[in-house]
Amino acid sequence: ALLRAANALLQQRRYHAALAVIKGFRNGAVYGAKIRAPHALVMTFLFKSGSLREKLRSIAQATYAHSRNLAYFVFTYKGLLAAQSRLQGKRIPFHSFLAACIGGWLVFGDNNPINSQIIMYLLSRILFGLSRLAVEKGYIPQPRQDPFPLLAALVWGTVLWLFEYHRGTLQPSLQASMTYLYEDSEVWHDLSDFLVYNKRTDSK
Question: What residue intervals traverse the membrane (predicted)?
Answer without folding.
Answer: none
